[in-house]
Amino acid sequence: MVKRGRSRSISTRKKQHLDLCATADVGFRGVTTLLEDVHLVHDALPELALDEVDLGTSLCGKTLRAPIVIASMTGGTSAAARINLDLAAIAEARGIAFGLGSQRAMHEDPAAAWTYEVRKVAPTALLLGNIGAIQASRMRTAEVQELVERIGADALCVHLNPAMEIVQPGGDRDFRGALGAIARLHAELGVPVVVKETGCGISASVGRRLLEAGIRTVDVSGAGGTSWVGVETLRARAGDRAMGAELWDWGIPTAASVALLAPLGFQVIATGGVRTGLDVARALALGAAACGVARAVLQAHSKGGGREVDRLIDGILGSLKAAMALTGSRKVADLHMIPRVIGGRLRDWLDQLA
Questions:
Q1: In sequence order, what are the residues at sequence separation of 6 or more whose Cβ sits closer than 8 angstroms to the Cβ of residue 8?
Q2: Residues ≥6 apart with Cβ < 8 Å to 339
Q3: What stretch of H or E contains 341?
Q4: Which domains are present in the chain?
Q5: What does the pLDDT look like over 196-254, one tens digit per residue?
Q6: Which of 89, 135, 210, 293 could form a disulfide with 215 if both were Cys (CB 3.0 to 4.6 A apart)?
């Protein structure tokens, strides 16, 4: 009975998350991604045709037709199931990656597993499962393996969200054991483990600890996009919102996190406020392997379903190809080597932390 009640509570929270992200102002207020501080140097003699630009890349051992991940958002409710199926089908058709939301709901209640099962519409897409690091620390590897196998995931995102949990009504307050669980899953799980934040970014010092644990792929999910502290603040009772309002803009900007982690040798996914092809090009120029887009996709889907999501992705890929052509980049890997000028607050972050 307790477990069923907890499952209902998780499902309610997931529905509230979806509604708030689709309709409410839950972006960072005074903090940006700092991708605007990355200036790509124009090549007036690129000596290539736009049609020559190749967006193909690889991530977690799979080939993508473009360096885009429809990033982790939802699961656990019937509305989430419809969204997951729609977005997974688009990922399959586009040859891009798709990330599921936290599978905690299906772990608590196996009857919710169907809301995450998208392989029937995405048989070949790179599919990323998802579980919280704290939940993983309390689970046996075999239990996590069952979550991965049930949905046919190619890799597992283990998410970090201490700021979100501190503000969340009834959230976790004990974050011990997360690193050990990550190291254990890397050693025992049998699929790649991707460590991802949930809107607050990952620092270089945390990156070095993850390297020691064996992790080679990270999703920075940095500050400047959706504030999950903000989401939980809006869910909290009026009298409990003061701390959330104070911490609304907490985190490391996306561009800073990418620029700090890429030199350590990670395969970096740049998520957090990425909305345009130019954002993607700038993140790739900082060393990212791919970029995740989340709330913009959810909002597009809420507005016009799959057709609107396709329109959004068309725009992203079109401006990414243009930016690549205008920097003389035939391949995604070329963007890692082009000249770029870093200024503004991003330069301050890197000067003080790199």
A1: none
A2: 40, 41
A3: strand 340-342
A4: 2-353 (3.20.20.70)
A5: 999 999 999 999 999 999 999 999 999 999 998 999 999 988 878 999 999 999 999 99
A6: 210
